[in-house]
Design the sequence.
């Protein structure tokens, strides 16, 4: 029987176990350059016993930033700074993927340089507020991306992936979940286009397919993962019947031989085995455990074949040596959910205050 503590090959590497540290936004890239800091290098190195670390969301371009003090991968300085992080993780024997996260309409002009404004597939504002250095602010109506701007955005994802490899990352995860840009194209509520980038299932999945394809061509498909969260209402997303769109998306991507698909499971758990069956490659599952953080019970998902790897969020914050604690049955430090935004299933909780 396969267990969570058995090794697995992924992205040309042999992972020591099947435990993934889920991506969790920390907003610690202080300063105008949006560059990672020594504190971030320490943070990730402490958790290098994970089979795979997926970083916090990293914007692939200046306009892709949606929160204060989040890091980028679009300047030489950012590439150099990320090298200190990847070197620290590799010295501890770990593997680390960079999560590329373009937030799209989620954000505020005060977070962006040079008069930029948030963008999206359609000019539809999200309900709610975003945290800024001046406090919470209402979301604004995004600028609808033109066809040339869509093409440029795809190029920026590919360029950021090349920068990730230059910075020493073992691969990248494309954030197609939680109501950010790729997810906005997938959802009918946020994508009201009638051109080839919307209107039909094929149109709504097109942006995701072309981003994944461009990044796979840029750095190799075995270094590329995709995260999705069908039906996740976070960031004012509405997907009443996501099955058709996501099964079509997986069908289009199945032949690319990606490193993995990462499912952030929602309350519609009936869709999970259908996605698992439809996906021919490595399947990473961040199980739906709301209102609790993912705990030791999730280890059985490897044993019963529901997933190839299982992702932990909040518990990894509180327990840097989580694989050891899971293997020995604890003890576990309690996760302080008020200290982060971006951990397990934030789409199903009130938007918490950023304190970390």
Sequence:
């Amino acid at each position: 029987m396969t267990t969570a503590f058995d090794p697995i090959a992924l992205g040309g590497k042999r992972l020591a176990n099947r435990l993934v540290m889920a991506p969790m936004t920390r907003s610690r890239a202080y300063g105008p350059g949006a560059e990672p800091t020594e504190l971030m290098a320490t943070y990730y190195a402490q958790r290098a016993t994970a089979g795979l670390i997926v970083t916090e969301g990293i914007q692939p371009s200046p306009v892709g930033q949606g929160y204060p003090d989040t890091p980028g991968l679009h300047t030489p300085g950012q590439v150099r700074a990320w090298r200190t992080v990847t070197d620290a993780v590799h010295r501890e024997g770990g593997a680390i993927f960079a999560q590329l996260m373009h937030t799209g309409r989620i954000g505020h002009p005060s977070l962006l340089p040079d008069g930029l404004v948030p963008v999206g597939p359609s000019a539809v504002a999200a309900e709610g507020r975003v945290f800024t250095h001046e406090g919470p602010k209402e979301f604004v109506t995004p600028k609808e991306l033109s066809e040339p701007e869509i093409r440029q955005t795809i190029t920026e994802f590919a360029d950021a992936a090349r920068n990730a490899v230059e910075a020493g990352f073992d691969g990248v995860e494309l954030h197609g979940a939680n109501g950010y840009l790729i997810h906005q194209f997938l959802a009918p509520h946020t994508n009201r286009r009638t051109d080839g980038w919307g209107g039909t299932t094929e149109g709504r999945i097109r942006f995701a397919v072309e981003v994944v394809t461009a990044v796979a061509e840029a750095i190799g498909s075995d270094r590329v993962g995709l995260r999705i969260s069908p039906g996740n209402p976070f960031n004012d997303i509405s997907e009443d019947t996501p099955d058709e769109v996501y099964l079509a998306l997986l069908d289009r991507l199945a032949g690319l031989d990606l490193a993995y698909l990462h499912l952030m499971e929602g309350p519609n758990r009936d869709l999970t085995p259908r996605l698992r069956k439809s996906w021919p490659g490595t399947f990473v599952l961040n199980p739906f455990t709301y209102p609790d953080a993912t705990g030791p019970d999730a280890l059985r998902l490897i044993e019963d074949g529901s997933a190839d790897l299982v992702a932990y969020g909040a518990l990894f914050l509180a327990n840097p040596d989580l694989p050891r604690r899971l293997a020995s049955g604890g003890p576990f430090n309690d996760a302080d959910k008020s200290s982060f935004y971006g951990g397990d299933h934030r789409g199903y909780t009130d938007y918490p205050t950023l304190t970390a």
